Amino acid sequence: MTEPTQNLTDGFHLLIDAFKMNGLNTIYGVPGIPITDFGRLAQANGMRVISFRHEQHAGNAAAIAGYLTQKPGLCLTVSAPGFLNGLTALANATTNCFPMILISGSSEREIVDLQQGDYEEMDQLAIAKPLCKAAFRVLHAEDIGVAVARAIRAAVSGRPGGVYLDLPAKLFGQTMDADAGQQSLIKVVDPAPRQLPAPDTVSRALDVLKGAKKPLIILGKGAAYAQCDDAIKTFVEKSGVPYLPMSMAKGLLPDNHPQSASAARSLVLKESDVVVLVGARLNWLLSHGKGKSWGDTAGRQFIQMDIEPREMDSNVEITAPLVGDIGSCVELMLDGMGDNWSKPPQAWLDQVGDKVSANGAKMAQRLGSDTSPMDFHTALGALRDIVDQRPDAMLVNEGANTLDLARSTINVYKPRKRLDVGTWGIMGIGMGAAIAAAIETGEPVLAIEGDSAFGFSGMEVETICRYNLPVCIVVFNNNGIYRGTDVNPTGDGDVAPTVFVKDCRYDKMMEAFGGQGYYATSRDELSKAVNEAMDSGKPSLVNAVIDENAGTESGRIGNLNPQSVVSRK
Ligand code: ADP
Ligand code: TPW
Ligand code: MG
């Protein structure tokens, strides 16, 4: 006779209880051996389990969930290949400082370690380790509580990032006494404690800022992640300093804010004498803080607010390193500024303001265009007007020209509304980000996708339809990567490597799964389709036909693209 099971629990249930106890209620993943039943049981126990068609997109969704909520997003995969598919997203999350936990089932330890050829055999822990913040393996059910607690802390404390949890198949079925199991779980207290910057650095930063003739504030996605939106807005406004938002920091202050220097980016980078970095790294996206884009660097001083001490001096000297969480850094700066803080010299504000007005007028004219076929500005002009009317919508954006031009033309009015290719400039985040945005915020989602970019995660259209998510995808269909006009110079055989099937119909993909497809060849058709789609709240895809000649190679980052100068083919 088998023992009664009422007083027993097992690995499956302990894991679910540990997540729920810590407020982690959604899992993004793909089922299979050995985690199929885990997904089922999680759903049966009230967790939301979102099944994808490919782990990379589930992982990207988990990372975006982490970014939006400050709780680690959970991604669940099978062993070896499923794990590897999820690993790209884990590495990307870590690179972007987004908290997530990749949980993968794995094969039997003894067989893996002796390399005896188990089903999907792979030493996953060793492979994950260098690509994330922390990696843990759990061999005993009674350790699940500790493992989940450590995974949460590692993901969200300090600089957020990805954590890997390796769960061998045997763990799930291990049983233990239910009471002892319950007691082994840990509800993590204060997982991301505030971290105050040293008082003397705050004074130093204030002195440097006070002495500035041409100050500039740069807001990064770390500032958006920190969810201290009011303090940041007050800091920028009280300082009177022109600010530049990095792409995912757009909307921390509305893009039409009078202090926004976005339209004068080149000028403010070149001419600023004091730069305050708020949750933004001086990586390639800011030309490493030196070189041509920054003009004459002599005498320029940087103040940097970042939770990661080792970020300081990574590219240039940081005069005032404020190591702490953005909320604490900004609040202490505000305290120190007092009530009589004087604004920057008027000459600087006028210089920036004049440039912003001149460039803004040029851009407004371009966005008013109505070319046939549509070029990028015609299509983006239509979408910009739509987003102006729908400031709560979540915006997802990837591609090359489709990314760079949408970033500089579409205004964002609220924090954490814009999700894009991030630090790596990676293609394929689109559908994962759109799904997480819809699930985590409940707001409608507009995904503006290059046709190539969309292809990386396009099959997740089925996922969007299956969960009936309010996602409107607009595919900028210019027949290829950057443009659709490349030809094979040999004159026969394969088409050029950057072009796709011409005039294809991505809208039919959406229809295939029961969503609404639209086909738009003009500004009017595009406006009408996107408005209708967003009003309906139904899964929809608009195939926007874009002039295949319109794009430029690599969009705005052609300078990073090596090209042969040798005359042989
Ligand atoms: P962007 O790409 O927008 O310029 P980055 O990803 O380069 O932004 O930089 C984000 C920075 O923010 C990282 O250096 C990270 O350590 C930091 N960061 C993330 N969260 C916080 C936080 N809560 N407080 C302080 N710094 C943070
Ligand atoms: C994971 C390289 C950068 S941009 C891009 C590729 C393939 C697609 C650009 O074409 P798209 O946009 O989307 O049609 P548009 O408007 O200019 O025509 N693999 C990964 N990441 C990157 N960044 C690439 C390849 C790339
Ligand atoms: Mg394209």
Q: Which secondary structure elements does this structure contain, and how are they paired or packed?
A:
Layout: E1 8-10, H1 11-21, E2 26-29, H2 36-44, E3 48-51, H3 55-69, E4 73-77, H4 81-96, E5 100-106, H5 109-113, H6 124-128, E6 134-137, H7 144-156, E7 162-168, H8 169-173, E8 175-177, H9 178-184, H10 199-210, E9 215-219, H11 221-225, H12 229-239, E10 243-245, H13 265-271, E11 274-278, E12 301-306, E13 320-323, H14 326-337, H15 346-367, H16 376-389, E14 394-398, H17 401-409, E15 418-420, H18 430-441, E16 445-450, H19 451-457, H20 461-466, E17 471-477, H21 507-512, E18 516-520, H22 523-536, E19 540-545
Helix pairs in contact: 1-7, 3-4, 3-18, 10-14, 12-14, 16-17, 16-22
Provide a descriptive summary of the structure in words.
This protein is of the alpha/beta class and 569 residues long. It has 3 domains: 8-184, Rossmann fold, CATH 3.40.50.970; 199-354, TPP-binding domain (Rossmann fold), CATH 3.40.50.1220; 368-545, Thiamin diphosphate (ThDP)-binding fold, Pyr/PP domains (Rossmann fold). Helices cover 39% and strands 16% of the residues. The protein is built from 22 helices and 19 strands. Helix 3 (55-69) packs parallel to helix 4 (81-96) and helix 16 runs parallel beside helix 22 (523-536). The mean pLDDT is 97.
